[in-house]
Write a structure and sequence with these properties.
This protein is of the alpha+beta class and 112 residues long. The chain is built from four helices and three strands.
């Protein structure tokens, strides 16, 4: 049986990561921790990195390396670019519309 929560999350992970990056440049593991702290416990590093790569290829974020404190390897950080901010605004509007529609359906046709 397919885990319904992970399937729902898969559809909005791009938007969630882009929103986190819009708050401040971050690296993958840091984003996984932030998502977990905010209640999205199903997100693994294995799903974050391909999504970040897709966002970068789409021209919504750019990656850059920062030397780690101490002896660790450099970390790849991501920052949002103007096109990413525009896309995030579009996705946020679409999400609000979708969320309102689903809520109405789940409430038996009653608007919140």
């Amino acid at each position: 049986m397919v885990d319904r929560n992970s399937q729902l999350l898969k559809g909005v992970l791009d938007m969630c990561l882009l929103s986190l990056i819009a708050e401040e440049p971050s690296y993958g593991y840091e984003m996984a921790a932030k998502l977990n702290d905010r209640g999205l416990h199903l997100v693994s590093d294995g799903s974050i990195y391909p999504t970040l790569s897709r966002l970068q290829k789409a021209g919504l974020v750019e990656g850059y390396f920062v030397e780690a404190d101490g002896s660790g390897p450099p970390r790849k950080y991501y920052r949002i670019v103007d096109e990413g901010r525009d896309r995030l605004a579009e996705w946020s509007k679409e999400w609000e519309t979708l969320q309102a529609g689903v809520s109405t359906i789940l409430n038996g046709g009653e608007h919140d």
